[in-house]
Amino acid sequence: MGRLSALLNRFSSPRDPGRGIEHIAESASQRQMAETRKSDRELTPQAFQALSPIHDDILEALYQTSPRLVLCLSKQLYAKYIPKLYSNITINSDSIAGLWRTYSSGNWKDNNTIRAYKHTKTLHILDINSAHQICTITTGDQPVYVPHSDLFENTKQVEIAWEVYLNQGDKEQYYMYIDFARQLGRQLREGTVEDLVLEIKDGSTAINNHRSIIREIDLGIKAKAITLLLNPDIGERHDRTMKLPIIPPDLRFAKKIRYEYTSELDTTAIEHLGHHIKKLSNDWKTIKEKTGWINEEIKIEYCVLNGDEVEERVNRWLRSTGNSYLLGWKDSRVEILDLAKVKDDLRWSTVMQRMINGGDTV
Fold it and tell me: Which end of the chain has less Cβ packing within 10 Å, N or C?
């Protein structure tokens, strides 16, 4: 009886009314919270199932932070996310590691990486090492051992940085790397590449083989259109004139050539643009007289800020300098477009986005 009285006194003591009941309730609540936290840490199948309405959101967030982890969760998720993961790739040691030492026949049936490349729509080659790796894959040199071809047969967009462009055809390189464009071309399907982007940091006569480089790249990659992304400081090199590469008129595959320049053109730059049009016209006429053939389907586009105003000023310059005869050739071959209307076409380009955002190019 003494113990029972003491217990009742704890529940009913005026000094601490309700203390006993609250204590019991508090203890039960703490145990429940501890069990909940333990369950959260373990994330049991039952707990995860309860989140089924937002499973897709969880997996998408996980893919954004750790795509490789998502690929390992199940065959279904692998099949779902592989096309997305490989749709836009930059060639580097990680992206082609699946081809090393495969000792396979080079067939898509016995290599997951080869199958994944079939989903690639956009391909970036941004440094010399990446270009050399393409050559290694194509020839089957170590550590690949097996020659590969048609890896990127569904690719529609290819981007080549300045460093890679400049080394095309350089005979001082190891023989396997000299004609990178042809090696890359063996990984692409003819007629599939819609747009090839070339970064140009220097278009002056200091680079005296632009015609040869562009011709070899055209023959190797066979793109329908070639875009020359002109570095914003291209007008500050050598003699401070904005000299642009001259496109050879005997390209076999490209039907459209774009010059894209992201900085405003001052009066001097507009005069240089007029000179470039004149040079193109004379150059193409000379080559046609010598060889008897040029690609009459090639069209030239200059994509610049305030395109309409620039075109009007270029036309005015041609008339004032006695070059009115070029206006007919220009109207049939050349368009000067406003960059703001076309830059979204190259939103996929790494180099273009860096130029627009004012960052350093590759």
Answer: N
